[in-house]
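For practice. Supply one:
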Amino acid sequence: MVLESVMLCLDNSEWMRNGDYVPSRMECMQDAANMVSTSKIQSNPENTVGVMSMAGKGAEVMVSPTEDMGKLMNCFHELKLFGKLNFVTAVQVAWLALKHRRNKNGGQRIIVFVGSPIIEESKALTKVGKLLKKNGIAVDVVSMGEHEENQSKLEDFINAANSSDNSHLVTIPAGCVPTDLLVSSPILNEGGDMG
């Protein structure tokens, strides 16, 4: 059982209204985030999950890391769509939220759900990725849409953050159900054989 504190960064930009995932990117992301948080909390009773939004006025922590599934479920449905994605800022805020987690034991992980164009340059993503690696924070990115524009930036980010294969990029093709692909991904299966 891997012990970790997780921050879910959810893209709540206008792009998430897109219907290339049924019924929308937003609803598919909410289902996937719910599944990931449930899985993380059920895998170890001491695990905590926090949630933050990444667009609008700026990155905002909606729920600090908790084991309370009720709080998490409520915040997924309170997410409002507006503005543009702030990828680098959101990752930095998630890192700060993890610094202030209650249980200092175990690993730290940021899981980013992104479905809109990343406006920051690759260099900025690489820089924050290296800082996360230096501080022992694993990162997973679930990419839903805008693959052509984001793919190389996200690969640079994951490569910079990766330490001993602890960070992953999962690209979900349009038309697929994100939860179906995430079930068999390293995001939900990491450390399963280390028990």
The beta strands are 4-10, 48-53, 60-66, 107-114, 137-144, 168-172. The mean pLDDT is 93. Helices lie at 25-43, 69-78, 87-99, 122-134, 147-161, 178-183, 186-189. The first strand starts at residue 4 and ends at 10.
